[in-house]
Amino acid sequence: RGEELCAMGVVSKAGDWAFKAFSAGLGVATIFFAATFSANVYRGLSWHNRQSRVEKEGSKVLQQQE
After folding, report:
1. CA 27: distance to chain centroid?
2. Which keywords are on file for this protein (predicted)?
3. pLDDT at 36 (0 to 100)
4. pTM for the full predicted model
5. What is the 3-state secondary structure (H, E, C) of 2-65?
6. How far from 25 is each of 2, 12, 18, CA to CA, in Å?
7. What 3-state DSSP class applies to 66?
8. How many Cα neighbours within 13 Å face the side chain of 66?
9. Burial readout 13-44 (b: 16 or more C-beta within 10 A, e: otherwise)
């Protein structure tokens, strides 16, 4: 009977470590996706601002030509 308890303890510890590894993986993935999302929002906003600036400068050039 002692062997059964020992085997269950090993299985329990293995499950515990598997859960900890899974939780750590979720934490790392969350941080990664939060960082890349923030970087992509920044890149998108800066791209949009550049496009707006180009359009404004283009309309000024057209007005000067007329």
Report:
1. 11
2. Membrane, Transmembrane, Transmembrane helix
3. 98
4. 0.62
5. HHHHHHHHHHHHHHHHHHHHHHHHHHHHHHHHHHHHHHHHHHHHHHHHHHHHHHHHHHHHHHHH
6. 35, 20, 10
7. coil
8. 5
9. eeeeeeeeeeeeeeeeeeeeeeeeeeeeeeee
